[in-house]
């Protein structure tokens, strides 16, 4: 590999950045399309053509770009020029671009700013920016994703990662010109592209705190969104924050969670690039034109927080015609009512996912299901429409209650519903609430389920007696005037009287760092059932729970239990390594702590008073080092109940 002098590196740093308007010429809004990332190095000319065929019906909605994400390059250049892998792309890139354009679409490619591509073994564009840009443009490429891989940091002595990024990215942007979308994919936690991507002419810039593909999981998606929101002030028309690909259709999240991602990405004016096979991406999520219009709004604004308390979020985004998009996002694990003020005059409120139109004189409120985001378009209007109605099922019993309610099989429990005339523009007449429960369950209204009229601001509450028939997690649906509200409940038995081993009981929720929590065995490795007998400093225990910290195990105790006891320690299967703290939480407060224990220490008995608690959690915390060996045992763990 050739090297350059420090003086040459410094000269690169002085290259002028293109103004953001040059990037805006290539795309009016954040780019939309499909990426081959899921295919990895199994990508081929045929698979890309099939994806283009499947994406073409979505082109009228704005899905334009078919993007090859690595593994398309041959291992070596041909006569100094980039060449496609002859086995994967025998027809060449120009022919593929022509095919894609024939479908009304455009082709995108990934290139690397370093010496090699990120995957597949192809060459990088370092020191070949002008030639490579000219070549891909000649092929008919309209989008370049410029990756941050195999960067020759040694060629930039005395420069930090941000400065190297500022040296390497503008030359490719300038060589591509304004008609090619330039997706700056160089976030590794230290290049901070949001600080300079706009001035460098980037159409999009990644916002993850590490340069890792987004996982198809709700918790990861929510974390990435929160990070993306921290960059909102730097985004805008022509230079958009990119929190990574749309996951809908891959199967790792529910449809509600996929709709949440799409809503949050639209509020952030983020690229809408599908990762799933376009044929498998659910149209109910990815093909809603009114939601897409929020993402593609010509103002290009990145939505910002109105309020947020860590679980419940209100976001607002100004739109070009003076309207606002408002999203209510419930990040927690149970339904919650979220509200916001929209102004003192009359407003038209359109739910962009259901199409329902209502009106309000100031407040917008709704019960938002767990992990869901509702999206509204709000405009000042005297239009006559029904008032905004807040319909709640099983509202939280206290502030911060983020668990599903728990019922016991065969025992009647209470569930509340509430109907509130929130909008205040007209009375709500003939209010009646009905209930749907799973087969074998019983439900009965303990208070009247019908009322004649609700004036502005009034609430109608119904108390329901619900008797479940079997353990598990179920949904209860309540209906009122074409509206529905869903309560997710867990059905679990509280421990019986006397002393019971916790490993003989069913938990209501569980989290574990690696692999599953094991009953009456150590954690072992990632696979279920691979643990060994629980052993702490040579003492073997027949009963208990084997975890890998950080871990949490929760039980429903229904206020009938008094004490939890266990022997806390690091399992001998990791030798003297590992460290953890062991805690017991009763409802919202910690009631016992073991102190820090290491693999070189004997077990320590923990006794926790839990009288009156509805839920009890056993928690293993990381000891402050890495978590590699934190195999934390709750040996001889028991609970005593009345």
UniProtKB/TrEMBL annotation:
Domain of life: Bacteria
Group of enzyme by EC: hydrolase
EC number: 3.2.1.22
Keyword annotations from UniProtKB, A to Z: Disulfide bond, Glycosidase, Hydrolase, Signal
One function term, GO molecular function aspect: alpha-galactosidase activity
Catalysed transformations (reactions): Hydrolysis of terminal, non-reducing alpha-D-galactose residues in alpha-D-galactosides, including galactose oligosaccharides, galactomannans and galactolipids
One example of a Gene Ontology biological process annotation: carbohydrate metabolic process
Residue ranges annotated for the Glycosyl hydrolase family 98 putative carbohydrate-binding module domain, each copy included: 496-641
InterPro entries: A-galactase_NEW3 (IPR018905), Aldolase_TIM (IPR013785), Galactose-bd-like_sf (IPR008979), GH (IPR017853), Glyco_hyd_98_carb-bd (IPR013222), Glyco_hydro_27 (IPR002241), Glyco_hydro_27/36_CS (IPR000111), Glyco_hydro_b (IPR013780)
Signal peptide residue numbers: 1-25
UniProt cross-references to PANTHER family, sorted A to Z: ALPHA-GALACTOSIDASE MEL1 (PTHR11452:SF75), ALPHA-GALACTOSIDASE/ALPHA-N-ACETYLGALACTOSAMINIDASE (PTHR11452)
Family listed: Belongs to the glycosyl hydrolase 27 family.
Name this polypeptide is given: Alpha-galactosidase
Organism whose genome encodes this protein: Nonomuraea solani
High-level lineage: Bacteria, Bacillati, Actinomycetota, Actinomycetes, Streptosporangiales
């Amino acid at each position: 590999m050739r090297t350059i002098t420090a003086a040459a590196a410094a000269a690169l740093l002085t290259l002028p950045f293109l103004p953001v308007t040059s990037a805006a010429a290539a795309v009016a809004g954040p780019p939309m399309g499909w990426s081959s990332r899921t295919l990895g190095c199994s990508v081929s000319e045929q698979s890309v053509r099939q994806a283009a065929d499947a994406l073409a019906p979505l082109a009228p909605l704005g899905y334009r770009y078919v993007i090859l994400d690595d593994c398309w390059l041959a291992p070596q250049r041909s006569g100094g020029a980039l060449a496609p892998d002859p086995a994967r792309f025998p027809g060449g890139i120009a022919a593929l671009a022509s095919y894609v354009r024939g479908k009304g679409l455009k082709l995108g490619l990934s290139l690397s700013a370093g010496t090699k591509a990120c995957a597949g073994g192809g060459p990088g564009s370092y020191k070949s920016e002008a030639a490579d840009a000219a070549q891909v443009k000649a092929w008919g490429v309209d989008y370049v994703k410029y990756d941050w891989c195999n960067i020759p940091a040694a060629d930039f002595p005395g420069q930090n990662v941000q400065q190297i990024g500022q040296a390497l990215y503008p030359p490719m942007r300038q060589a591509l010109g304004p008609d090619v979308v330039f997706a700056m994919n160089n976030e590794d936690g230290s290049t901070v592209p949001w600080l300079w991507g706009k001035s460098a002419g980037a159409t999009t810039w990644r916002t993850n705190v590490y340069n890792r593909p987004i996982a198809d999981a709700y918790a990861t998606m929510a974390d990435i969104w929160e990070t993306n929101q921290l960059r909102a002030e730097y985004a805008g028309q022509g230079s958009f924050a990119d929190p990574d690909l749309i996951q809908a259709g891959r199967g790792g999240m529910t449809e509600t969670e996929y709709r949440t991602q799409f809503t949050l990405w639209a509020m952030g004016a983020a690229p809408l690039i599908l990762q799933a096979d376009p044929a498998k991406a659910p149209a109910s999520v990815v093909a809603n034109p009114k939601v897409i219009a929020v993402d593609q709004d010509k103002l290009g604004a990145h939505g910002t927080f109105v309020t947020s308390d860590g679980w419940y979020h209100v976001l607002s985004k100004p739109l070009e015609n003076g309207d606002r998009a408002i999203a209510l996002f419930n990040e927690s694990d149970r339904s919650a009512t979220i509200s916001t003020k929209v102004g003192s005059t009359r407003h038209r409120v359109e739910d962009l996912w259901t199409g329902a139109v209502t009106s309000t004189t100031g407040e917008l409120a709704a019960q938002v299901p767990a992990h869901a985001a509702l999206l509204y378009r709000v405009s000042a209007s005297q239009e006559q429409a029904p008032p905004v109605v807040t319909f709640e099922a099983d509202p939280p019993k206290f502030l911060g209650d983020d668990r599903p309610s728990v019922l016991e099989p065969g025992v009647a429990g209470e569930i509340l519903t509430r109907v509130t005339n929130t909008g205040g523009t007209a009375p709500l007449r003939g209010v009646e609430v009905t209930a749907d429960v799973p087969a074998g369950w019983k439900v009965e209204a303990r208070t009247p389920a019908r009322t004649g009229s609700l004036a502005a601001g009034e609430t109608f509450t119904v108390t329901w007696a619900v008797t479940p028939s079997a353990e598990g997690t179920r949904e209860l649906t309540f209906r009122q005037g074409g509206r529905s509200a869903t309560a997710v409940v867990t059905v679990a038995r509280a421990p019986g009287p006397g002393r019971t081993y916790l490993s003989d009981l069913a938990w209501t929720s569980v989290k574990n760092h690696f692999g599953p929590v094991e009953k009456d065995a150590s954690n072992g490795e990632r696979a279920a059932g691979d643990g060994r007998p629980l052993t702490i400093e040579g003492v073997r225990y027949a009963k208990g729970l084997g975890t890998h910290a950080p871990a949490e195990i929760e039980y429903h105790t229904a206020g009938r239990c008094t004490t939890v006891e266990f022997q806390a320690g690091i399992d001998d299967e990791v030798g003297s390594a590992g460290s953890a703290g062991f805690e017991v939480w009763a409802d919202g407060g910690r009631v016992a702590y073991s102190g820090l224990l290491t693999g070189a220490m004997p077990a320590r008995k923990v006794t926790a008073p839990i009288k009156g608690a509805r839920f009890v959690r056993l928690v293993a915390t990381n000891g402050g080092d890495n978590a590699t060996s934190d195999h934390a045992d709750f040996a001889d763990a028991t609970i005593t109940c009345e």
